[in-house]
Each structure stands twice: as C-alpha cells, then as structure tokens.
Amino acid sequence: MTWGVGRAGLTRRRAAIGVRRMKILIVDHEKVSRANLADKLAAHGHELATVADGQEALDRLQTEAFDVVFTDAKVPKVDGIDLLRWVKQSGGSDTHVVMMSSNGSIPVAVQAVKLGAHDFIKKPVPTDKLRALLAEISQQRGGVDAANLAPTASQRADVQRTIIGDSPAMDRVRRMIRIAAQTDANVLIHGETGVGKDLVASVIHRQSHRSDGPYVKVGCTLLPPSLIESELYGHEEGSFTGADQYRRGRFELAEGGTIYLDDVDDISLDQQAKLLRVIEEKVFERVGGNRPIRANVRVIASTKLNLLDKVREGTFRQDLYYRLDVLRLRITPLRARLEDIPALTEHLLRRIARGQPCHFEAHGLDVLSRHNWPGNVRELYHTLERAWLIGGGTISAELLESDLESSQADEVEDVFHDLRPDPVRAVEGGGFKAAIDFAEKQLLIEALRSSGGNKTAAANSLGMKPSTFRDKLAKHGLS
Ligand SMILES: Nc1ncnc2c1ncn2[C@@H]1O[C@H](COP(=O)(O)OP(=O)(O)OP(=O)(O)O)[C@@H](O)[C@H]1O
Ligand SMILES: [Mg+2]
Question: Considering just the CA atoms, what is the radius of gyration of the chain in Å?
Fold first, then answer.
C-alpha cells in the first residue's frame, strides 16, 4: 500500500491576550440604558467608553483595542449586526461582542451568534446575568494566550492522522474542527450514517481546552423516552420505584468536559425543553430533586436529518435548534468525495490488518470508486474487513466486486451498525450475515421488551419506520 495521506488545511488565527480588567465599549443610542450599563460595568472595575451610534463605534474601534463591545442591535448609522461583522472580519476578531436588544428578537439573536457574537441579551440586562457574563468573558480572555490558541504540531498531526481524506470537503471539516476546538460554542454535526460524525465529535473534544475533562457520548436513539431524563440528569434516591440510591446523570458525568448528543433529533419535545434550559442557564436538577446543579459542559450534537425540516414540522424546537447550531459542521457523503477512497482504504486496512499481512490488488480501487456507498466510510470499513478476512489477507478486486453487488441487493439497516460482531467469530460461526441476523433479532427483542410490547414505540426507539420494524419481526418469527 503506497497511497499518501491528505494534508490538513489548518490555518493560524490571531490569539487573544489575557486580561482581567477589561476595556469595554458600549454602543447604545438610548441614553438611559447606556448610562445604566456603563455604571454597572464601571462598578465591576472595568475601563469604559460609550458611544451613541455605530459610526462612532467604528471610529473608536479602528484606533483602539477593546476587549468587549456591548452593542444594541439597532443603533443608528451602522447597525449592531454590521458592526459585529466588521469586528469579526477585521484584525479585532478576538474582541468579544455582546449583542443587546430591547425586544429579544430570535432571528437577530441567531444571526448575531452565527456571526460570532459571544452572547445575545435582552435589555435591561439583569445585574446577576451581567456579572456571570463578565466572569465568563474574563475567564475566556484571561485563560487564553497565544500559546494556547495556536495548535501545536502534535495537535495538527493528530487531526491529520485521524481525519482522513484529500478532498476539499475533508479539508473543510478539518478546518472546522480546529475552529470548534478553539471555542466553547455548541456544535451541530450533520451527515449521513457512517460519514464520521462520532469520530469528528471526539476529535473536537480531544483538541479543545476541555480535553482533560470527560467526554460523554449519549446515543439519543438508543435511550427509551421514559429513561432519557434520568440518564441525562440523574435521579435522587427514591424518586421512582427502583431508584434505591441517587445516580448521577450524563451531564454530571461530563462536568468540565464535553457531552456528545448523538442523533439529537430523537429527543422528545418535552425533553427538548429541559435540554434547552440546561444549555441556556447551565443548570439542572436531578429527577426527583430540587437542588440546582451547575453544568459546565460543552455540547456537541449530531443528526442525520435536516433539523430545520423538523423545526418546520413542529417536532423540533426552534430555540433549541439555534442553541445547538452555533457552529455547523456538515460532513459530505462519501459518494460525493470519491477521491478520498484511496487514502481511506489505506488507513482502514491498516486498522483492520493491525500489522498482519495485507495485500490490496490495485484494480480494487476502481471497483470501490464505482460503488455509491450508502453506509459511507463505515460501509467501506466493513467491505474491506470482509474481503480481508475471506481472502486471508489478500483483497481481490473480484471479491470486492461481488461483495458490493450483493450488499446492494441486501442492504442492512443503519441502526445495527453499532453492534458490530467480532469479525473472526462471525466468520467461524456462520459468517457476517448470520452475525448481523443474530444482532438484529436481539435488538428487536430488546426494543419490544423496553416498550412493553408497543411496536410503534419499539420501532421509534430503534429509529426505524414502524412498517420496517413489523417486516423485521415477521422475518424473525416474532410477530
Ligand atoms: N474521514 C475519516 N477518516 C478516518 N476514519 C473515518 C473517517 N470517517 C469515518 N471514519 C470511520 O468510519 C467509521 C464510522 O464513523 P462514525 O461512527 O464516526 O460515523 P457516524 O457518522 O457517527 O455514523 P452514524 O450516524 O451511523 O452513527 C468509524 O470507524 C470511523 O472511525
Ligand atoms: Mg454515530
């Protein structure tokens, strides 16, 4: 195997210089609210400047460096959004911008956060909120210095070594990982099954300043609706039958680190409301308890669906969507970046063979490039693994061809991918198909048991259409 591995297109970004006493610019045309805010900020010991319109703000920003800009969204001459855009695109992109508005308009909030605002707040700003906000900004600015923000050579090599692919799409993914790793903003990863969402989420965590903290994955599809609340937030002793001692939930376990909500679209509407509160207020209570617990947790969520469609359908809360989708990372399906196949094949074969002999017939690449890969990189992995096992270390183009033809005719449901049987046992005990059938039957039984025999709920818990679920029950003689 002689194919090269792609280069990561990572760029350096200017770093913030750590400061505790901050220099703050207030941009607000309303005299009273401008003066009130200035008083409150000065009382916290910060250095203040105030202006009444966006043009004046630009004049100041062009000649002076500010740590933070508090701007009303609707200031005259140059509005708050344009000011924010200017700040983020200019050399002052490290300045924290806090957007303010009297009416708390959601579209403006979304636009502001997308353009890089640190936060969006409704005026008048409550003193406790202001204190928390300043502490957060001060910590972020005080805790970072150039050395922390610039990726080390080993960090760059890590992304390059783990996220394989020479295509521009994968270059973009690596760039986004680097940006995501530098901030604490929530991330929404979007892509079909098997494109690498889990992999990307774990690399973002590993590269972020939270890497010493825990990384907790929650498979939202696999958790029945009745259990998700106590799984996420834990429960107090005696809060329901069987809860004979308190239990910490995933948010508590992820304290100081990252929580990865896989298939976040599967969370029910009532649980979405709770999740929104944790994300917005960074606080939650265990089930059956009323003691608020602080959540210092970064949220990365993934979805295979277009969440905006779900928002339009009314099955996903719009406010939660905007809170999760601060940084969006879309991973292109493998069929649209076939140029990644050689490097991926080399990488995956190394993982599969683990030092054992591995010979790949070069013509095999043509075969792999003709397939459309509905299961994306995971499907490529399994295809290569089967071929390697069956060919005793030699991956023949002919075998790949016939395997891919048959897999197209007999597509395996996505939902079973996580129950990958031990490949050696699978081959000895009746082959890959037999192992998949076994795992499939176990899943169906498990889902039926957890839903108390309710087939629709069981199908939902598996992320499967009820009709597909019923067909599979019939296939296994369970209907
Ligand atoms: N760019 C890549 N470089 C190296 N390995 C990759 C890449 N993309 C995916 N993989 C590998 O492919 C497999 C599937 O990836 P992963 O589990 O992250 O997919 P996913 O998008 O989370 O899928 P699903 O939606 O089904 O959960 C993993 O073994 C992962 O390591
Ligand atoms: Mg996944």
Answer: 26
**pLDDT value of position 425:** 46
What is the C-alpha separation between 25 and 49, in angstroms, rounded?
5
23-143 and 153-330 share one CATH topology?
Answer: yes
Classify domain 23-143 by CATH architecture.
3-Layer(aba) Sandwich (3.40)
pLDDT top residue among 464 and 367 = 367
Q: Report which bound ligand comes closest to the CA of 198.
A: 1
* Fold classified for 335-475: Helicase, Ruva Protein; domain 3 (1.10.8)
Pocket lining: 417 vs ligand 1, CB cutoff 6 Å: yes
Residue 201, ligand 1, Cβ within 6 A: no
Q: Determine if ligand 1 sits within 6 Å of the CB of residue 384.
A: no
List the one residue out of 15, 105, 112, 104 whose CA is nearest residue 69.
112
Amino acid at 282: K
Domain ranges in the chain are 23-143, 153-330, 335-475
pTM of the complete model: 0.60
Cβ(190) – ligand 1 distance below 6 Å: no
- Residue 434 and residue 423: Cα distance in Å, rounded? 11
The beta strand positions in 78-178, using DSSP E, are 96-101, 119-122
Closest ligand (CA of 303)? 1
Asked whether 115 lines ligand 1 (CB < 6 A), one says no
pLDDT bin (cut points 50, 70, 90) of residue 7 is very low
CA 336 to ligand 2 center in whole angstroms:
19
Q: Is the pLDDT of residue 250 over 90?
A: yes
Q: How confident is the model over 79-138, as pLDDT tens digits?
A: 999 999 888 876 556 789 999 998 877 788 888 888 888 888 888 888 878 888 888 887
153-330 folds as: Rossmann fold (3.40.50)
